[in-house]
């Protein structure tokens, strides 16, 4: 019996020695080639083998960063005017709208037509779309963008710096009229803009609590705060 056990142990040891290279193969250097999909050994570690603290921290911070960016984008819109409260601004506009002259160009007629279609849309600070409302510069930008494809600056002060200066006696339909409604009467910065129609009338989005309407430059409030007129580039030859 002891002899049989010795032979059995020797046979087992020989088998182990014979199979040893199988365990040594992974230690042998092999070329860095991508294995085929059929020969890939399943990853027994699963998701744990991809653990990355830095990546997880970045992912956890992403929602907060996106929320902050969205808030910043919203507040960075074309918020324009100090006329949002409309102190002293007339509560109503003119009763009758002046007719355009027969020699008014089609381009200018298109501008005024678009502007008139937007009457009665409410004032919203920073507003630039009829679905939500307009502030004064948002209203002007919308009309020019959709009527003639011209992209104007985002606020009234910037719009005042663009375009050709026009004397009051030479204004035409579609020219921009500007006002100093902030600070002391007629002495503050440019803070309001409208679109000239004809016969001293202009259309604009006035201030909080009001809607897009037509007013007259001869009205005392506007006459005292009138800062000048500009002609955007698309209208210079029209």
From TrEMBL:
Pfam families: NLPC_P60. SUPFAM superfamilies: Cysteine proteinases (SSF54001). Keywords: Hydrolase, Protease, Signal, Thiol protease. It comes from the Bacteria. Residues 1-24 form the signal peptide. Residues 68-93 are annotated as: Disordered. The keyword Heme does not apply. PROSITE patterns: NLPC_P60. The keyword Ribosomal protein does not apply. Residues 105-233 form the NlpC/P60 domain. GO terms for molecular function: hydrolase activity. Residues 79-88 have a biased composition (Acidic residues). Belongs to the peptidase C40 family. This is Cell wall-associated NlpC family hydrolase. The lineage of its organism: Bacteria, Pseudomonadati, Pseudomonadota, Gammaproteobacteria, Lysobacterales.
């Amino acid at each position: 019996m002891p002899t049989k056990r010795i032979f059995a142990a020797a046979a087992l040891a020989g088998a182990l020695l014979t199979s040893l290279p199988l365990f040594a193969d992974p230690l042998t250097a092999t070329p860095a080639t991508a294995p085929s999909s059929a020969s890939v050994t399943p990853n027994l570690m699963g998701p744990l083998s991809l653990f990355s603290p830095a990546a997880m921290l970045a992912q956890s911070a992403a929602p907060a960063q996106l929320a902050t960016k969205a808030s910043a984008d919203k507040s960075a819109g074309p918020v324009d005017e100090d006329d949002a409260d409309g102190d002293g601004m007339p509560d109503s506009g003119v009763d009758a709208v002046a007719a355009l002259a027969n020699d008014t160009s089609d381009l200018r007629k298109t501008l005024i037509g678009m502007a008139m279609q937007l009457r009665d849309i409410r004032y919203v600070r920073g507003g630039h779309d009829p679905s939500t409302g307009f502030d004064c510069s948002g209203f002007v930008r919308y009309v020019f963008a959709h009527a003639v494809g011209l992209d104007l600056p985002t606020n009234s002060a910037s719009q005042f710096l663009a375009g050709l200066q026009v004397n009051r006696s030479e204004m035409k339909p579609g020219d921009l009229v500007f006002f100093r409604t902030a600070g002391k009467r007629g002495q503050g910065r440019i803070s309001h803009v409208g679109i000239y129609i004809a016969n001293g009338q202009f259309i604009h989005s006035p201030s909080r609590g009001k809607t897009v309407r037509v007013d007259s430059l001869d009205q005392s409030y506007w006459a005292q705060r009138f800062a000048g007129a500009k002609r955007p580039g698309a209208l210079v030859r029209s």
